[in-house]
Amino acid sequence: MSADAVTEDQQTATLLESYTEMHEILMPNHTNNLGRALGGVVLHWMDICAAIAARRFARAQVVTASMDHVDFLGAIDVGDVVNVEAFVFETGQTSMDLKVNVYAERPSEGERRRTASSYFTFVAIGGDQEPTSVPDVVCPTEHQEEMRERALRRRRERREQLAAE
User: Fold this and answer.
1) What is the pTM of this model?
2) How would DSSP label each residue in 24-45?
């Protein structure tokens, strides 16, 4: 185990400790010829938000290990405020599973809609550039437990659906 491994007082972390929100305005240089967000730009923002959430949770450097199937649920138009949310909902010895949602907002119209979602896995990296242990995720409130259970259930359902196709 790495010298940077989780210490005795860092054996757990709450889901809320990882919760991260990023905001962007969709500018013309982030759009296709229809004035809508490029998928690659949205994926980039999702990866950055998830990395921040994972680093906060692990208290260590992290690397992206995988990204599940991404569902693009709706367009994001130039000028929309883009909100990316991520949180850790499950952990392994050195890995963390995160739920990432993307929303588009039009504040002038009071509108907010989900536009993309996915699941990411990150691995914590110690000072020796090797995987290092991460805290166990705990959910001390009913709201955090509901967020975790919903993420676990939806990921399981998504995997079952993809396996059936």
Assistant:
1) 0.90
2) EE--GGGB-TTSBB-HHHHHHH
